[in-house]
């Protein structure tokens, strides 16, 4: 069966050019870049070239880029290391209610270790309330961490405005840009970003590699102790093929960003229009236009999300009901609850995330099959049957 892959927010296919760039560092230039002999020089040069490239894509300096094992590690590093380094200044952190669990669970950890966290609410479109964020700032606030774009509903946050608020109050600003990096433009100086997390596998790069941007001058101790790699801040032998692959993926994504955004928006808007017009009692989650170009997230009343995913899978369509990191959870999405949806509607969610390889034919096939699936599931729902009876009685 040919699969239609519409779960690119979970992970992406490694691009052929990325795999080609990585391969020599598995088999030919396999030296440890920390070694001093000349054979290791190719590996070291590749790592530093990658660092320079990635820095350029976000307006940073090469020495401000640190390679990590992925987005979750980078998020943990930003919060834990900042909290430890600046605990004498204050123990208050501000984040939002719709962050990835890599942020929320790290905040829970810090709360158990003497820190206080304020969770700022979002509006019905999933956009952080700036007035509430600014009102939450205290004399002991040391860090604001707000994601650049939400991984479930795709809403893009006002990062530049948040960064400006943080700078005016002399507070560090971190953004989880795992879903946003190389998908939408980001510039650390223009947006007043002090720390930024990103991951390779969201941009057609390899899994298990990410980076952390830390503005020069910010104190940050060793996150992983051991060797002297990454200027003594992150020990462990460099994942040279992964670093090379992520840099190549970023290069391809950034160079094609404008055209890709236009193409994906066209498909996304067609998808959203068809679903909302042709499937009754459906709703779009997140802002209608101020969202990631490839993201569409819906809720369907009287539907249980897992059943919908199983039936879509039987038709060769790969989708999700939210974050891949919580796919085993029976609880409704914390993001959907945060935008005000009741549990019974939040349970019927569907996230479809596209790529530059997605075709209009695939979108139309998906909507055609989704209509049949929704109709089938509702036909078996006592809640839907009762709802239709009440509707019919009200129209008499």
Walk me through the structure.
This protein is an alpha/beta fold and 396 residues long. It has 15 helices and twelve strands. It has helices spanning 16-22, 24-27, 41-58, 71-85, 101-111, 130-136, 159-168, 229-232, 240-255, 257-278, 305-314, 334-338, 343-346, 360-379, 382-395; strands at residues 4-5, 65-68, 92-96, 116-120, 141-145, 172-176, 195-199, 210-214, 282-284, 295-300, 317-318, 349-353. Strands 2-8-7-6-5-3-4 form a seven-stranded mixed sheet, sandwiched between helices. It has a three-stranded antiparallel sheet with strand order 9-10-12.
Task: Please specify the SSE layout and strand pairing.
Blueprint: E1 4-5, H1 16-22, H2 24-27, H3 41-58, E2 65-68, H4 71-85, E3 92-96, H5 101-111, E4 116-120, H6 130-136, E5 141-145, H7 159-168, E6 172-176, E7 195-199, E8 210-214, H8 229-232, H9 240-255, H10 257-278, E9 282-284, E10 295-300, H11 305-314, E11 317-318, H12 334-338, H13 343-346, E12 349-353, H14 360-379, H15 382-395
Parallel strand pairs: 1-11, 3-4, 3-5, 5-6, 6-7
Antiparallel strand pairs: 2-8, 7-8, 9-10, 10-12
In brief:
With 396 residues, the protein is of the alpha/beta class. 42% of the residues lie in helices and 13% in strands.
Number of helices, where a helix is a run of at least 4 consecutive DSSP H or I residues: 15
Mean pLDDT equals 95
Shape: globular
Low-confidence stretches: none
Radius of gyration: 22 Å
- Helicity, as a percent range: 40-55%
Estimated share of beta-strand residues: 5-15%
Number of strands: 12
Q: Which structural class do the helices and strands define?
A: alpha/beta
Strand order of the largest sheet: 2-8-7-6-5-3-4
Taking the sheet with the most strands, its summary is: 7 strands, mixed
Element pattern in H and E: EHHHEHEHEHEHEEEHHHEEHEHHEHH
Straight-line N-to-C gap: 48 Å
Regarding quaternary structure, what we see is: single chain
């Amino acid at each position: 069966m040919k699969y239609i892959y519409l779960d690119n927010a979970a992970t992406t296919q490694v691009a052929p050019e990325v795999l080609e760039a990585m391969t020599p560092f598995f088999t030919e230039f396999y030296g440890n870049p920390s070694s001093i002999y000349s054979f290791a020089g190719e590996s070291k040069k590749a790592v530093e070239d990658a660092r320079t490239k990635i820095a350029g894509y976000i307006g940073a300096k090469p020495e401000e880029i640190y390679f990590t094992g992925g987005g979750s590690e980078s998020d943990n590093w930003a919060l834990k290391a900042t909290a430890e380094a600046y605990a004498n200044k204050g123990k208050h952190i501000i984040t939002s209610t719709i962050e990835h669990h890599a942020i929320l669970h790290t905040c829970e950890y810090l709360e158990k270790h003497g820190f206080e966290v304020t969770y700022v609410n979002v509006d019905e479109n999933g956009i952080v309330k700036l007035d509430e964020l600014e009102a939450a700032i205290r004399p002991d606030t040391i860090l604001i961490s707000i994601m650049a774009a939400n991984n479930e509903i795709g809403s893009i946050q006002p990062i530049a405005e948040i960064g400006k608020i943080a700078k005016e109050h002399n507070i560090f600003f971190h953004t989880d840009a795992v879903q946003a990096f190389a998908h939408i433009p980001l510039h650390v100086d223009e947006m007043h970003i002090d720390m930024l997390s990103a991951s390779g596998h969201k941009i057609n790069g390899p899994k298990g590699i990410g980076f952390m941007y830390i503005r020069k001058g910010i104190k940050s101790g060793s996150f992983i102790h051991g060797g002297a790699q990454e200027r003594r801040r992150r020990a462990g032998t460099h994942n040279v093929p992964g670093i090379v692959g992520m840099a190549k993926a970023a290069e391809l994504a950034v160079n094609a960003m404008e055209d890709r955004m236009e193409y994906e928006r066209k498909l996304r808007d067609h998808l959203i229009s068809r679903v909302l017009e042709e499937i009754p009692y459906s709703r779009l989650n997140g802002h209608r236009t101020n969202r990631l170009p490839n993201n569409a997230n819906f809720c369907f009343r009287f539907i249980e999300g897992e059943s919908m995913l199983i039936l879509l899978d039987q038709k060769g369509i790969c989708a999700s009901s939210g974050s891949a990191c919580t796919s085993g959870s029976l609880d409704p999405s914390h993001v959907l609850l945060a935008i005000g949806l009741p549990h019974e509607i939040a349970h019927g969610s569907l996230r479809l995330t596209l790529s530059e390889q997605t075709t209009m034919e695939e979108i139309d096939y998906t909507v055609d099959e989704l209509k049949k699936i929704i109709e089938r599931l509702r036909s078996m729902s006592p809640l839907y049957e009762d709802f239709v009876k009440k509707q019919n009685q009200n129209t008499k």
